[in-house]
Every structure is written in C-alpha cells, then in structure tokens.
Specification:
Layout lengths: L2 H16 L6 H24 L4 E6 L5 H16 L3 E5 L7 H10 L15 H12 L9 E5 L2 E2 L4 E2 L4 E5 L3 E6 L18 H6 L4 H11 L1 H8 L2 E6 L3 H19 L5 H25 L2 E4 L16
C-alpha cells in the first residue's frame, strides 16, 4: 500500500466533492471518503490498464450523476486526464422521433424513459468521436454532444461542444449494463400500467428486444462497470418523488405525485430486473442508502 498516494487521492476527492452542489458539508465528506476516493482508485487502475470508457449503472435516486460529476472533477484535477462526462439521459430521442416509434411499435414509447427511447446509435457515434483523434490531424477538435431539456421533453436545439480527443469517458445511465430478461418472465404484467396499457405484452417485448441488441452493444463499449444498487424499487420511487417536490418548490413546474407514480411504472420492470442481476454483472457493486452513502466499505486499489 502506498499511503502517500492514497492520502493524496483522498485530498483530491475532498476537493472534487467541494465543487458539487446539493450536498451539505457532512454529506460531502462522507461522499469523498467512502465513495468517490475508493471508486476513483479503481478508475485510475482501469485507465492505466487501457480502459477508456467507465460506466456507472444506478436506478433513479442512487446518486450516479453526482458520482459521475465527482469522478470527472477528480480525474481531471488529480490525474490530469481529459475526461468527458456523459449521461444516457441526454441521448433520449427527440419528441418527434419518439412519436414515430410510438406510431410504429407501441403508444407507450411516446414517453421518454424505457429502453427504446434513447438514440443509442448517436451515443455510440459520440463515443467514437470523443475518443478518436481529429481526422485532419489537428491536436484538438470539438464534438457536438446533445443535451436533453426535460422541461420541454425534447432535445435542446443547440448541442454542447466538448473538446476531443479525451483520455476517458465516464458514462452513467439508469439501464446501462442491464441485460434482457428471459422471454418467460415477460408473460405476466408487473404493474397496472402493463396490465391496462400493454395487455398484449408487445411493449415489454419491444423494450426487451432493445436491451438485447442496441443496449447490449453499448454495454460492450464499457470497459469497466460500477453498479450503485438501492435497497428496492420503492426506494427509487421515493427518491424520484422527493426530486420532483424540490423541482416544484424551485420552479413551480413538475409532475404531481400521481403523475410521478404513473411515470415510475415505466421503469419498474427493468429496475427490478436490474436489482436481481447487476450485482453479478458489474465489475464493482456498491449498495447505497437513501442518503447516497454506501452501506459497506468500498475496497481501495492502492497505487
């Protein structure tokens, strides 16, 4: 164990956590010491071994976006790496695209969320562009990265521009790495939404098909996968409801409690399946509580 290097990484984690909003001082310290620093030790080892895409799976409310932002800041400032932080949420199909899919496959695809509502080919092309050198031999080039406006329920008119090439991409998403279900598990509806609006099972079969193909191809691009596992799907629902309450208090806009409950049913099947499977599929699994703090010590990989 290199105690000096570990102490340096811990200080870097504290500095990165200080940049994050939405955490009080005690929460930032817990986050830096118990989660960010040990996870960063794994990320640095995997990057040294040649991995260039690090993935974070986590249900809604698991803290995956906070961890991804902290990792980006830490790896940039501590290790001098050029890091791109991507969210699967920003690669939702445009509203017009979802309407076309809904007309062709099933009306439930109108609403963003489930597998089959992301533009996975665009995400794969974006990964390629961020990691590849400029075609004209320039030292640096700019890659357009979409940004999804959840208030408008559509892709923002202007993409963000990220400098490339990057050394590392941190990619987070609520269904990243989740496998398709066996066909026999699709027979029985899992909630009222499926019973009332997908009685034939066509929607859930389409979602499962996308998991087995587009999303599996995306998972193959991830060199190292971390899973943040909440206690239950009910915990995820409670976190999403609290998030919506904060949004309504801040902006006056947002879904009602009943709308949140209906919205979360679209995530239920895949979220429950992830809780059953991701502990075995991920390279590192961390169980987190409602405060996003890990429920167990995360092992360090010392320098």
């Amino acid at each position: 164990m290199n105690a000096t290097a570990d102490a340096t990484l811990l200080r870097a984690a504290e500095a990165a956590a200080a940049e994050l909003t939405g955490l009080d001082e005690a929460a930032r310290e817990r986050f830096a010491h118990r989660l960010l620093a040990p996870v960063a030790s794994h990320a640095l080892h995997r990057h040294a071994a040649g991995e260039r895409v690090l993935g974070i799976y986590g249900a809604q409310g698991s803290g995956k976006s906070t961890l991804a932002a902290g990792l980006e800041a830490l790896l940039r400032e501590h290790a001098g790496l050029r890091v791109a932080n991507l969210s699967l949420d920003d690669f939702y199909m445009t509203q017009a695209h979802r309407m076309r899919v809904a007309a062709r496959l099933h009306p439930l695809f109108e609403t963003r969320g489930p597998p089959g509502t992301h533009d996975v080919p665009l995400l794969l092309r974006t990964l390629d562009a961020l990691l590849a050198p400029a075609s004209d031999g320039a030292v640096q080039h700019t890659v357009p990265v979409p940004r999804f406006d959840k208030g408008a329920d559509d892709r923002a008119p202007e993409p963000d521009g990220l400098p490339a090439p990057v050394d590392l991409v941190v990619l987070e998403g609520w269904c990243l790495g989740v496998p398709a279900q066996p066909a026999e598990l699709l027979t029985t509806p899992c909630n009222d939404l499926e019973r009332q609006r997908d009685a034939s099972g066509r929607f859930r079969r389409c979602v499962n098909h996308r998991l087995a193909h587009d999303y599996a191809a995306l998972t193959q691009r991830v060199g190292w996968l971390l899973a943040l596992l909440v206690d239950s799907f009910e915990t995820s629902c409670a976190q999403r409801l609290a998030q919506e309450h904060r949004l309504r208090a801040r902006t006056g806009r947002g879904m009602s409690d009943a709308q949140v409950a209906e919205f979360m049913q679209r995530y239920e099947r895949v979220s429950r399946w992830a809780l059953d499977t991701m502990a075995e599929r991920a390279d590192l699994c961390v169980r987190v509580g409602r405060d996003h703090a890990p429920r167990q010590d995360v092992p360090w990989l010392s320098a």
